[in-house]
Design brief:
- With 214 residues, this protein is mostly beta strands.
- The protein has a single domain (37-213), classed as Jelly Rolls, CATH 2.60.120.
- 11% of the residues lie in helices and 50% in strands.
- The chain is built from 2 helices and 15 strands.
- The chain has helices at 2-14, 81-90, and strands at residues 17-20, 23-26, 39-44, 47-52, 58-64, 70-78, 101-110, 116-129, 135-140, 150-157, 169-174, 180-188, 191-201, 205-206, 208-213.
- The strands form 4 sheets. Strands 8-7-10-5-12-13 form a 6-stranded antiparallel beta sheet, with no helix packed on it. Strands 3-15-6-9 form a 4-stranded antiparallel beta sheet, with no helix packed on it. A 3-stranded antiparallel beta sheet has the order 4-11-14, with no helix packed on it.
- The longest helix has 13 residues, at 2-14.
- The radius of gyration is 25 Å and the shape is globular.
- Keywords: Signal.
Length: 214
């Protein structure tokens, strides 16, 4: 019934005329159609692992075999209940002191040898993981133009963290078909104030979920 009622009313709305002080106007009707987009989720995960990161440290993980479409968001996982489980199983309590931690998004091109290429996004997108947050944390990526086939994505810790404490935990995974990079800090034993940063493959990868609009 509603379908037929719309058809009958439509010509009236389209050509409705208003007469105001002997002046006749023709109302303009703009008709738009909204096609619902399909969202494809690419889940990247494997054998559970985790680690904590401090100010200035970063991690990026390779992404490939991407479905066609526009990447709209990424979800990372922080301070998950996995840490609580490890505490329970091991009988130990990790020295955690969760803080509100500010992170900057990193996106790199991937070279043919699976090494870091040109940087695409260098912390232009920032976000804060609250100290009481546990689990999935979604970031909008709609402003970034990603390579079609492969790239690296991750984040860098921007805010201050406390030494000798774990202020944020990141959910990772171990799987050989992905590769991650981070920086290793090497201290000069003859000069404790001198440090050298070396880019190196990381032992595990970032667990994440990408959403692709199709």
């Amino acid at each position: 019934m509603l379908k037929y009622l719309f058809i009958l009313m439509f010509p009236v709305a389209l050509f409705a005329q208003n007469k105001i002080e002997d002046t006749t106007t023709l109302d303009e009707v703009v008709i738009t159609t909204h096609k619902k987009k399909k969202i494809k989720k690419l889940k990247i995960s494997g054998t559970p692992a985790y680690n904590s990161f401090s100010q200035g440290e970063f991690i990026v993980t390779s992404v490939n075999e991407i479905p066609k479409g526009k990447i709209s968001s990424v979800t990372f996982y922080f301070n998950t209940s996995f840490i609580d489980l490890v505490d329970f199983v091991s009988g130990k309590k990790f020295d955690t002191n969760y803080l509100d931690v500010k992170l900057g998004l990193l996106v790199y091109e991937m070279n043919e040898n699976r090494e870091l290429g040109n940087i695409i996004s260098n912390c232009e997108i920032t976000f804060v993981v609250p100290h009481n947050h546990k689990g999935a944390f979604k970031i909008d990526l709609s402003t970034i133009d990603f390579p079609k086939d492969k790239f690296f994505i991750g984040f860098k810790v921007l805010s201050q963290t406390n030494k000798e404490e774990y202020n944020i935990y990141v959910r990772l995974f171990e799987k050989n078909n992905h590769i991650s990079y981070s920086e290793m800090i090497i201290k000069d034993l003859t000069n404790p104030e001198k440090e050298t940063k070396i880019l190196t493959p990381y032992f595990a990868n970032l667990k994440m979920t990408l959403e692709i609009e199709q």
